[in-house]
Amino acid sequence: MSKTKRSWIWIYILLFTTSCLAQPSANLPTDPFLNESITSYLVAEVGINGFGGEVFCAFDYLDANKDTDGNIFIWALCQEYYLAGDSITEGSGTSLPVALQTQSTNGQIDIIGHRVPGDGSYYGPDVREIFPRGTWSQILPKKGKGLNQYNLRASELSNETRMIATEYFSAAD
Question: Is the pTM of this model over 0.85?
Fold first, then answer.
């Protein structure tokens, strides 16, 4: 596949992903370029490529109900896909809350870093340190409606990455 065709496919994927999934909370800008920047950043910095495939990321804004203070709080799912014969197969993946550290320059928001909670016994305390209280129930659901929303978000993000991967590999033919 030519490099130009591949570039156009990536642009389509990024725009499609951001328009379908990323629904910013009221305190976040609705700039589609920000959503594209977030997706690109996640692919480069959060996604895992363990099988030589392509990494696709989708995200959802977490509702912080407050000013972002130089951070944007999201739930990200990054999944690697590769072709095994004629089948699209999942490789390495990760699904986790991410605090994107941002900087505003001339009205444009740039992503300059990120923080994620640690594994195991570090997870809960790190969530409480990194993320605002308004997001804790979305990150650490206990039961009922919160747990259902948590599972629904995971399913939607997973379906989104699979759909983008399917389109990507279909266009590569």
Answer: no
How many structural domains comprise the chain?
Answer: 1
More confident residue, 25 or 52: 52
Tell me the C-alpha distance between 24 and 13, whole Å: 19
Please tell me the predicted confidence (pLDDT) of residue 26: 43
Q: Which of 23, 27, 58, 30 is nearest to 42 (CA)?
A: 58
Instruction: Dig out the tokens for 23 from the structure.
Output: 């629904």
pLDDT band with cut points at 50, 70 and 90 for residue 124: very high
Q: Which domain holds residue 65?
A: 3-171
Compute the radius of gyration of the chain from its Cα atoms.
16
Q: What's the CA gap between 153 and 75, in Å, rounded? A: 9
Long-range Cβ contact pairs of 40-45 (< 8 A, separation 24 or more): 40/14, 41/100, 41/111, 41/114, 42/76, 42/78, 42/98, 43/78, 45/114
Output phi, psi for 79, to 5 deg. -130, 130
